[in-house]
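Worked example 3. Consider a protein that binds zinc ion.
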Amino acid sequence: MRLKVFGKLWRMVWLAKGEAVPGKLLASEKGLCESPDVVGKTIYIRDERPDAETLDTLIHEMLHAADWSKSEFWVHDVANDLTRNILKVFRIERL
Ligand SMILES: [Zn+2]
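Given these inputs, the predicted complex is written out as structure tokens:
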């Protein structure tokens, strides 16, 4: 699967429980976005947790892809806010 973020394409790879990406991602980590200058840049997302946590990780990694200069603190907080708001809106739409 490919994800387009702010005009650039990343490969997206699901990781199974306990799966690591040697030299890049530990088996305990939730996700990773490779730098926009990496050839074949990839976003890795672990597929073993509740959907809301996986959504948060996906948004988090896509925010890194959208603006690599943002701090981990900014990405973490914005991803949490966006995830919470998306879940809130979906609950409202389903009523
Ligand atoms: Zn991050």
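Take a moment to read the result before moving on. The longest helix spans residues 72-94. DSSP finds two helices and four strands in the chain.
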